[in-house]
């Protein structure tokens, strides 16, 4: 009887040992699989970080190029040496920021109790006013106008008399539907 108990005990221990060995190999296999997935995830994370860095660099370069384009805009008074030369010849005693001066004079036309007299459209939702303008050269201005809802654009010719007074003339306009 003792012999049977020992055989049962030995068989039980052998089965238990086999089960532990099997589970150990199973855990080792799962550990390798998890490590492999973790390594792959880390590689993907590192690749994403590198991709984001490249994107940020590209965005930075694009912003720089956009700023350079804005600064070197050929269709602006500051970017047009011939137009600036015109002002130096026409007004040799004047040292002023002509762009700011002309824009100020243009925006003064908004200071009326009714629509801006330069805008050939009546405001439907308020008074038509010029809200943005770009001086293209020593003769032309591109202006945007709105009444708060409706908007349009126009091209103006301007002349400056010897006294420095600016005169505007609308050459063409459009109102957006």
Instruction: Order the strands across the largest sheet as they lie in space.
Output: 1-2-3-4
Query: What's the β-strand tally?
Result: 4
Helix coverage percent: 40-55%
What is the count of DSSP helices, taking H or I runs of 4+ residues? 3
Uncertain residue segments: none
Shape: rod-shaped
- The average pLDDT value, as a whole number, equals 89
Query: Largest beta sheet, briefly?
Result: 4 strands, antiparallel
Over all CA atoms, what is the radius of gyration? 39 Å
The SSE order reads HHHEEEE
Strand content: 15-25%
The number of domains: 2
What layout of secondary structure does this protein have?
Layout: H1 2-71, H2 81-90, H3 98-108, E1 129-135, E2 140-146, E3 151-160, E4 166-175
Antiparallel strand pairs: 1-2, 2-3, 3-4
Question: How would you describe this protein?
Answer:
- By secondary structure, the chain is of the alpha+beta class.
- The protein has two domains: 1-72; 81-175, no CATH class.
- The protein has three helices and four strands.
- The chain has helices spanning 2-71, 81-90, 98-108, and strands at residues 129-135, 140-146, 151-160, 166-175.
- Strand 1 (129-135) and strand 2 form a beta hairpin.
- The longest helix has 70 residues, at 2-71.
- 9% of the residues are buried.
- The model has no long low-confidence stretch (mean pLDDT 89).
């Amino acid at each position: 009887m003792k012999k049977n108990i020992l055989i049962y005990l030995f068989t039980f221990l052998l089965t238990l040992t086999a089960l532990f060995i099997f589970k150990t190999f199973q855990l080792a296999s799962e550990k390798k699989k998890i490590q492999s997935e973790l390594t792959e995830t880390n590689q993907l994370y590192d690749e994403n970080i590198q991709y984001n860095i490249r994107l940020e660099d590209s965005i930075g370069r694009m912003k720089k190029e956009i700023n350079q384009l804005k600064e070197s805009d050929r269709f602006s008074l500051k970017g047009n040496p011939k137009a600036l030369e015109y002002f130096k010849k026409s007004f040799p005693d004047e040292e002023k920021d002509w762009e700011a001066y002309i824009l100020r004079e243009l925006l003064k036309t908004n200071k009326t109790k009714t629509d801006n007299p330069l805008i050939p459209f009546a405001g439907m939702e308020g008074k038509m006013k010029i809200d943005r303008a770009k001086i293209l050269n020593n003769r032309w201005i591109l202006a945007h106008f709105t009444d708060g809802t409706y908007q349009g654009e126009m091209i103006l010719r301007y002349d400056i008399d010897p006294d420095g007074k600016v005169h505007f003339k609308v050459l063409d306009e459009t109102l957006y539907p």
